[in-house]
Write a structure and sequence with these properties.
The protein is α+β, with helices and mostly antiparallel strands. 46% of the residues lie in helices and 14% in strands. It has helices at 3-9, 24-35, 54-62, 69-72, 87-100, 109-121, 124-149, 161-168, 202-205; strands at residues 46-51, 75-82, 152-156, 175-184. The chain is globular and about 60 Å long. The two termini are 31 Å apart. Bound molecules: flavin mononucleotide. Flavin mononucleotide binds next to strand 3.
Length: 209
């Protein structure tokens, strides 16, 4: 199957087969793809939380309108934005760049100044919105990678983010839930998988200039 055929195969899975789990290798590969997601300036101002604990997932399901994907999927992936995006955060990132690219810290001083200026320019709310955008890009990478690997997924924003943060203890960790995805394998009786895809016609969606 080509990538486009695989994207046509995927759908927002409503019913997962609870008995089917991702292998450790599949989960590793999926997370490896998510880790490679691009982000603005490369800051990756979010964390990706993999929830398997059944008790926690039962609580999360209540906070997500009872949606069965939360408990029946193989894993629940939470994309949580960093709420402490500040100069210290940028400094840590620059430290990592220096280490990975084997370059002296002082060579990156101008770059650090530029990034700090960008972050300082934003209000607290704007920083969170910005981080959420980056988290959604990672979600997109996860969905595409899952389709490529023949893994089912359901992106979800039908949940109470405040309750999620409380259940997962995210506030204390300087995080706030942005968006989530359930991953696993479709149940046979999930008729949503048989529905024809609804997408705008090309001439309506694309503008060529
Ligand atoms: C950000 C986002 C949030 C979504 N939230 C939910 C959700 O909470 N529950 C759900 O069943 N589907 C959810 N969906 C699935 C969409 O309804 C679905 O992707 C869309 O109707 C297109 O259908 P398809 O993905 O099956 O092709 C969400 C999708 C996205 C991208």
């Amino acid at each position: 199957m080509s990538l486009v055929e695989k994207l046509n195969w995927r759908y927002a899975t409503k019913k997962f087969d609870h008995s089917k789990k991702l292998s450790a290798e599949q989960l590793n590969d999926l997370l490896a793809a998510v880790r490679l997601s691009p982000s603005s300036i490369g800051l990756q101002s979010y964390k990706v939380i993999v929830v398997e604990d059944p008790t926690v997932r039962e609580q999360l399901r209540v906070a997500a309108h009872g949606q069965s994907q939360i408990t029946d999927s193989s894993q629940l992936i939470i994309f949580a934005s960093e709420t402490n995006l500040d100069e210290a955060y940028v400094k840590n990132f620059i430290d990592l760049v220096a280490e990975k690219r084997q370059t002296a810290r002082e060579n990156l001083a101008g770059y650090e100044q530029m990034l700090t200026g960008k972050v300082n320019h934003l209000s607290e709310d704007q920083r969170l919105v910005w981080s959420n955008k980056q988290a959604y890009i990672a979600l997109g990478v996860l969905l595409t990678a899952a389709a490529e690997m023949g893994i089912d997924a359901c992106p979800m924003e039908g949940f109470n983010a405040t309750h999620f943060d409380e259940i997962l203890g995210l506030k204390e960790k300087g995080l706030a839930t942005a968006v989530i995805a359930a991953v696993g394998f479709r149940a046979e009786g999930d008729n949503y998988g048989k529905l024809v895809k609804v997408r705008k016609p090309e001439e309506e969606l694309f503008i060529h200039i």
